[in-house]
């Protein structure tokens, strides 16, 4: 059993700006919190999925209040979806929730996991360049889905 003063992981964010907005909202409500992986993700954004993004931590006793504050008004993304940049085969530009964990920190793009079929695998070997399909990627739990 954990003590009320132990520090727990609350939420993960793909962009440092969104994580700082959440941290600021919690601190304004009097809930002490801190971020981890912020500098790493700021310097090397491609490492965000590997490291779990920018992670927000609070004390165990403040978890319920913090979740209530963050769910009342959702923290806006640092950038909204650019509808013009979506490919013709891309799904609706409004990012869905992850079916595994329910997080809304989801993006659509090239798959990070193996999505090769026979022909795309063969072409990838011949061209020496990985050809991967596009999928939604959850930055909270790492799940990929169509």
TrEMBL record:
InterPro entries hit by this protein: DUF2007, N-reg_PII-like_a/b
Name of a matching Pfam family: DUF2007
Residue ranges of every copy of the DUF2007 domain listed in the record: 16-72
Coiled coil (residue ranges): none
Protein name: DUF2007 domain-containing protein
Source organism per UniProt: Hymenobacter humi
């Amino acid at each position: 059993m954990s003590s009320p003063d132990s520090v727990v992981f609350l939420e993960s964010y793909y962009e440092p700006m969104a994580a700082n907005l959440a941290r600021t909202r919690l601190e304004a409500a009097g809930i002490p919190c801190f971020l981890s992986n912020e500098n790493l993700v700021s310097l090397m954004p491609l490492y965000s999925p590997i490291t779990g993004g920018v992670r927000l931590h609070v004390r165990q006793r403040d978890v319920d209040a913090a979740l209530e504050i963050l769910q009342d008004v959702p923290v806006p993304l640092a950038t909204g979806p650019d509808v013009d940049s979506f490919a013709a085969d891309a799904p609706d530009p409004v990012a869905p929730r992850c079916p595994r964990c329910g997080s809304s920190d989801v993006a659509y793009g090239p798959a990070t996991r193996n999505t090769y079929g026979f022909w795309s695998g063969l072409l990838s070997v011949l061209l020496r360049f990985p050809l991967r399909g596009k999928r939604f990627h959850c930055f909270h739990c790492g799940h990929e889905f169509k």
